[in-house]
Design a protein that fits this description.
The chain is mainly alpha-helical. The chain has six helices and two strands, in the order αββααααα.
Length: about 150
């Protein structure tokens, strides 16, 4: 039993010294991850809270690799084809996938605008409920209509 505890302590000490890439998504459900602690390598200061990752930090390894190749080729699809050994349609498809992942496609922007509008409307309904301008039944009805 003592040997197992020593082994576990050893593994934990090794892992504490290594740095790992933050996973692009939750390994269990694929959901968005939040960073809750960060540390200064120089002095050891810890900062805790809920921090959003930027859109590039949420990219998977394959998308990051493609993005690096695309940037190195200065956006030349022909050069990306040559560097990665893939066809023009494959480069275009991967570029479209990357654009979508970064939320830069027109459909993504439209969805974001719609989500923001729905969120604002929900907030208005809840504010009216809180001030007594709406009954609970009316608020439930209006919130249900938003989902449709």
């Amino acid at each position: 039993m003592l040997d197992i505890l020593k082994f576990i302590r050893y593994i934990l000490s090794v892992m504490a010294k290594k740095t790992f890439l933050i996973p692009a998504g939750c390994p269990a459900c694929g959901g968005k991850l939040s960073v809750v602690e960060t540390a200064c390598d120089a002095c050891g200061t810890l900062v805790r809270g809920r921090f959003e990752q930027n859109e590039f930090a949420r990219l998977g390894a394959e998308d990051l690799s493609f993005l690096r190749a695309f940037i190195a080729a200065r956006g030349s699809i022909k050069d990306v084809e040559a560097a990665l050994g893939i066809s023009y349609p494959t480069v275009r498809a991967r570029l479209e996938k990357l654009i979508e992942a970064l939320g830069l496609s027109p459909s993504s922007r439209a969805e974001d605008a719609l989500k923001a509008e729905l969120g604002a409307r929900r907030g208005e309904i809840l504010a009216k409920l809180e001030t007594g301008e709406l009954s609970v039944a009316d608020a439930e009805k209006q919130l249900a209509e938003l989902k449709e």
